[in-house]
Predict the structure.
Amino acid sequence: MAEQSAQEKTLPASPRKRQKARDDGQVAKSREVNSVMLLGGALGFFVLFGGSWMQTWVRTMQEGLDVFSIFEMDLGWSELGRHWMKNVLVLFSPFMILFPVLAIAAGLPQVGFQITTKVLIPKASRISPAAGLKRLFSASGFAESLKSLGKIVLIGWIAYTTVQPEIPMFPLLCKRPLGGVLSYSAFLAFKLVIRVWVALVFLAFLDYLFQRWNFERELRMTKQEVKEEAKETDGDPQVKARVRSVQMNLARRRMMQEVPSADVVITNPDHVAVALRYERDREMAPLVVAKGAGALCERIKQIAREHSVPVIEKPPLARLLYRQVELGREIPVEVYRVVAEILSYVYRLKGNVTDGRADG
């Protein structure tokens, strides 16, 4: 039971998993927002330019249905085809520019600027019947099916309530000119599309909220996944501890190699030991070249005795230097006087008080 609960995805997705999903093209995006933007852009175009566009469309249709004008053009079939293709392209060119712009405008607020080619890589799961059935009967697939069914019912109801009052007018259209029929059809279609668009705006808002919720739910992680990601990001704790141990041993070994070059070792006397070195021509003040407590303290004193480095007991000074001064750093100004007296005493013991270094 504990293992099962440990595998439940109850933890929010980490920034690393979110970025990986984004790089793979997995984002919280509603297709309904795109549909609403495209349909709204088309409606806006017709509101602003619908009259002139419809006149151009009617004129193009009339030219296409006027057989005599076609023969009067005295064009070959290839030239005639290019002529009508040019007219059609000019007629629909606003939509060829408008729709891509609207599609980008619909995607940017949802997912930001993101370019990835991973979604173009073929995957067997996309064409696998088993995977397709799994997606179909999943919670997301059920929600998509329910949403599609709801859209069909809603649009069908809107279409019925819009067209049903206009049905008595349909027989009368036979007596109207082509321009009037097209104008009436355009008005009725525009009226229908406006109503559908308003309904789709509401559906798009709900779908966007659902997609955000579903995306967060699918990205959730188990406790084990969080642990594995932490290992991949920060490294295995055991390996890191081993690396730190090796680094500390190397640093300790280098520090011990500096003890023979020290001028004096100041102790507390059995707790801490600090080795100092001072070279007048190279250093502004004495440096701490080694320090340690406990067993390391004893080791420093042992090496100092083996190399004839004086060991002097000054508990307050030893504690202050051990706590406040890092390896390779100069001693603080407030202890200059005390350390100077100790070094003078050491140099007198070694018989060398002129160059700041003992001959040993």
In short: The CA atoms of residues 110 and 125 lie 26 Å apart. Residues 10-232 form one domain. Strands lie at 264-267, 272-277, 287-293, 311-313.
